[in-house]
Amino acid sequence: MAPFHFFFFLFQKHLEDALQARQKEMENLQQRKRAAQEDICSLTKVSGELNFKIRAEFARLHQILEEEERAVLAELAEKEEQALAQLHRHVGQLEEGMAVLQRDMEHVRQALSKMEDVSLLEVESLDIRPSVRVETRPALDLQLYRDSHSGPLQYIFWRQMLRSICPAPAPLTFDPESAHPNLVFSRDLTAVTETNRAHPVPISPRRFRQCVNVLGSQAFDSGRHYWEVWVGSKTKWDLGVAAESVDRAAKVKLCPENGYWTLRLRNRTEYWATATPWVRLTPRQPPRKVGVFLDCQEGTVTFFDAGDMSHLFTFHRLCAERYCPFFSTCFSDGRDNVEPMRLCHLAL
């Protein structure tokens, strides 16, 4: 084979490989475009559900909440608009990349069809290097998007309303019969402290024996319930929801598999959600009062910094016959963690 023909054959093969590579890249961009469009549909669907939920909540408050309703819907629309703008921009970039690839592929096809008519200089002048770069798909956490707009929406606007709240904050009390022997309570059973020594208490299968835990005196199997717990400047604590049937005699890890859905503080600044696996939390500021919202029908429990009602974490797929508010003061460690844990009763 003459050197020219050999070179001609090699370059033809090179062009065919370039075309095949672009076809694969086109398929990749098409797949990414479909994924981005699915994100747009999902985001729109979730936004619609949240819009309906918000409107349903505000319907109970009638004209008094019209101004607040417009404000929260505007916030939701702004977040949706921002997220959709990112996704639409990404789709536009993908479409631009696909157009560039289409043009490149047409040039390569034309070169292949005219191989016998073009000069070697014209063939060598073809630019067949990859020419498309597209940013990665914008991150879209629909669950976080949904969770950040979930919870007791009417209570979030309590500071403007003071009335007509549903669910109303539950006036919880502690259940001394479930309490570890080291715990002591205020007379009205709304404050609890760990004392570093066991007190004489009746033996009961309802009592926690290994850890300084206590349950609320009310158990729930239906409906929506909200309560607030003052933790102040405590250096460590656990609180949340426990299945009424948990083993109270054993020392077990707090996790959903063992019937616990809780938040915890350790070492003054380390906040954790005891999911599987545990999730490290970074609140805007250390919460001094924590709100807990239990929705038995939805099977969720959501935690808020009750100071500004910012979302902390949501557990999904709770599964138990009955749920109890759960609390642990943790040990007092001398004088470092002696502040009582308190149940907040709100006068509306």
Helix segment tally: 6
Largest sheet: 7 strands, antiparallel
Quaternary structure: single chain
Query: Which blocks of ≥5 consecutive residues have pLDDT under 50?
Result: none
The residue-averaged pLDDT reads 85
**Overall geometric form:** elongated
Query: Could you give the distance between the termini?
Result: 96 Å
**What is the succession of H and E elements?**
HHHHHHEEEEEEEEEEEEE
Spatial arrangement of strands, main beta sheet: 1-2-13-4-9-10-11
Protein name: B30.2/SPRY domain-containing protein
Domain B30.2/SPRY: 152-348
Keywords: Coiled coil
Pfam families: PRY, SPRY
Description of the molecule:
The chain is of the alpha+beta class. Helix content is 36%, strand content 19%. It has helices at residues 3-61, 66-113, 120-124, 142-147, 153-156, 158-161, and strands at 183-185, 191-194, 213-215, 224-230, 237-243, 260-266, 270-273, 279-281, 289-295, 300-305, 310-315, 323-328, 341-343. The strands form two sheets. The chain has a seven-stranded antiparallel beta sheet with strand order 1-2-13-4-9-10-11, with no helix packed on it. The longest helix is centred in the first third of the chain and has 59 residues, at 3-61. The protein is elongated. 24% of the residues are buried. Residues 152-348 form the B30.2/SPRY domain. Keywords: Coiled coil. Pfam families: PRY, SPRY. This is B30.2/SPRY domain-containing protein.
Summarize the entry for a quick read.
It is built from 6 helices and 13 strands.
Topology, element by element:
Elements: H1 3-61, H2 66-113, H3 120-124, H4 142-147, H5 153-156, H6 158-161, E1 183-185, E2 191-194, E3 213-215, E4 224-230, E5 237-243, E6 260-266, E7 270-273, E8 279-281, E9 289-295, E10 300-305, E11 310-315, E12 323-328, E13 341-343
Antiparallel strand pairs: 1-2, 2-13, 3-12, 4-9, 4-13, 5-6, 5-12, 6-7, 7-8, 9-10, 10-11
Helix pairs in contact: 1-2
